[in-house]
Design goal:
Blueprint lengths: L2 H7 E14 L6 E13 L2 E18 L9 E2 L3 E4 L5 E6 L12 E14 L4
Antiparallel strand pairs: 1-2, 1-4, 2-3, 3-7, 5-6, 6-7
Length: 121
């Protein structure tokens, strides 16, 4: 799934982090993040889903939260970077929806592949 389609069709706030898996021994490094998100079905109607985001050709990783896994989040930032890459913060500073220098739990990569399991609970 394309990043723009994912951010348009799914609600990325008030979800949870299911898992984070760093694969840094392989070249290029990759990180898999599994999130519990909601898909827009109709006006004020949503369905819970599980989204797997595979970040490849990882440029930067800043994860400094002991309670990251299986934690609820109120907001995340997932957006393209100016150089065509992808930016994810699982603990953004404020709720502007854009990258901020004080964001926490940040992954920056050149690519992301997104797969969604619609029947996840």
């Amino acid at each position: 799934m394309v990043l723009d389609d994912f951010t348009d069709q799914y609600v990325l706030y008030d979800g949870s982090v299911r898992s984070v898996c760093l694969q840094y021994s392989a070249e290029p490094a990759s990180i898999q993040v599994v999130l519990r998100v909601r898909r827009h079905q109709s006006k004020r109607r949503y369905k819970w889903c599980e989204a797997t985001l595979l970040f490849t050709d990882v440029q930067e990783v800043h994860i400094n939260d002991d309670d990251l896994l299986d934690s609820e989040y109120s907001d995340i930032v997932l957006c393209p970077t100016d150089d065509g890459g992808v930016y994810l913060s699982l603990d953004p500073y404020g709720n502007s929806g854009v990258p901020h220098p004080e964001d926490n739990d940040v992954i920056i990569s050149k690519n992301v592949t997104i797969n969604v399991e619609e029947n996840a609970t």
